[in-house]
């Protein structure tokens, strides 16, 4: 666990979950931005999520806490890392208040478990707690194509008030790099959380005039 010496109040705390779906950079970038804005982030990464981080970002999963300390060194005092198996972590309890939880990217397996009320690990338990305490849950699914069960699970959660934000970057702002497309998705999540940012250019500035 990365020790947090400047823990904030509930309105300053966010849970970020990273699963084994492709697109782990979305979760890492969101964590980075939240930390840079002064928030505390409680981070949970599934075992499959660590595997994807190794495949997509060359992170060495055998030294997990060291990797986090290194990558988020500027804001390490605001980061709390929880083991995926630690069902007794603070975020597993409703008495520990947070502003919201974001699972990005969210695998279809994790989404199905949340929709079915299954909480066998810290990721799904924390999501279950957020739902029962009527706090904000944002899910960024990353899968294609989608089959009927995937869609039904998303609809079930959406009807419960969960924000479903598929990883579908736009192109109207003319992204020039991969970082631009990542920032667009992270910015859309921040919009849902009502957090001000300047990660992408919004529609306007005369571009709507053809």
UniProtKB/TrEMBL annotation:
<keyword id="KW-0808">Transferase</keyword>
<feature type="domain" description="Flavoprotein">
    <location>
        <begin position="13"/>
        <end position="192"/>
    </location>
</feature>
<dbReference type="InterPro" id="IPR003382">
    <property type="entry name" value="Flavoprotein"/>
</dbReference>
<keyword id="KW-0288">FMN</keyword>
<feature type="binding site">
    <location>
        <position position="46"/>
    </location>
    <ligand>
        <name>FMN</name>
    </ligand>
</feature>
<dbReference type="InterPro" id="IPR004507">
    <property type="entry name" value="UbiX-like"/>
</dbReference>
<dbReference type="GO" id="GO:0106141">
    <property type="term" value="F:flavin prenyltransferase activity"/>
</dbReference>
<dbReference type="Pfam" id="PF02441">
    <property type="entry name" value="Flavoprotein"/>
</dbReference>
<comment type="similarity">
    <text>Belongs to the UbiX/PAD1 family.</text>
</comment>
<keyword id="KW-0637">Prenyltransferase</keyword>
<comment type="function">
    <text>Flavin prenyltransferase that catalyzes the synthesis of the prenylated FMN cofactor (prenyl-FMN) for 4-hydroxy-3-polyprenylbenzoic acid decarboxylase UbiD. The prenyltransferase is metal-independent and links a dimethylallyl moiety from dimethylallyl monophosphate (DMAP) to the flavin N5 and C6 atoms of FMN.</text>
</comment>
<dbReference type="GO" id="GO:0016831">
    <property type="term" value="F:carboxy-lyase activity"/>
</dbReference>
<feature type="binding site">
    <location>
        <position position="172"/>
    </location>
    <ligand>
        <name>dimethylallyl phosphate</name>
    </ligand>
</feature>
<feature type="binding site">
    <location>
        <begin position="107"/>
        <end position="110"/>
    </location>
    <ligand>
        <name>FMN</name>
    </ligand>
</feature>
<dbReference type="InterPro" id="IPR036551">
    <property type="entry name" value="Flavin_trans-like"/>
</dbReference>
<feature type="binding site">
    <location>
        <begin position="20"/>
        <end position="22"/>
    </location>
    <ligand>
        <name>FMN</name>
    </ligand>
</feature>
<feature type="binding site">
    <location>
        <position position="188"/>
    </location>
    <ligand>
        <name>dimethylallyl phosphate</name>
    </ligand>
</feature>
<keyword id="KW-0285">Flavoprotein</keyword>
<keyword id="KW-0456">Lyase</keyword>
<protein>
    <recommendedName>
        <fullName>Flavin prenyltransferase UbiX</fullName>
        <ecNumber>2.5.1.129</ecNumber>
    </recommendedName>
</protein>
<feature type="binding site">
    <location>
        <position position="142"/>
    </location>
    <ligand>
        <name>FMN</name>
    </ligand>
</feature>
């Amino acid at each position: 666990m990365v020790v947090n010496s400047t823990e904030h109040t509930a309105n300053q705390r966010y849970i970020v979950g990273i699963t084994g779906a492709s697109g782990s950079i979305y979760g890492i970038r969101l964590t980075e931005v939240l930390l840079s804005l002064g928030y505390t982030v409680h981070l949970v990464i599934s075992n499959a999520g660590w595997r994807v981080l190794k495949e997509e970002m060359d992170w060495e999963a055998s030294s997990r806490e060291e990797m986090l300390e290194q990558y988020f060194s500027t804001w390490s005092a605001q980061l709390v890392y929880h083991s995926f198996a630690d069902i007794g972590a603070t975020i597993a309890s409703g008495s520990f208040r947070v502003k919201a939880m974001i699972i990005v990217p969210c695998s279809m397996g994790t989404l199905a478990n949340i929709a079915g009320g299954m909480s066998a690990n810290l990721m799904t338990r924390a999501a279950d707690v957020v739902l029962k305490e009527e706090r904000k849950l944002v899910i960024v699914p990353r899968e294609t194509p989608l089959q009927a069960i995937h869609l039904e699970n998303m609809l079930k959660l959406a009807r419960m008030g969960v924000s479903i934000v598929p990883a579908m970057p736009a192109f109207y702002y003319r992204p020039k790099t991969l970082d631009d497309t990542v920032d667009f998705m992270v910015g859309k999540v921040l919009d849902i959380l009502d957090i001000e940012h300047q990660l992408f250019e919004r529609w306007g500035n005369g571009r709507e005039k053809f």
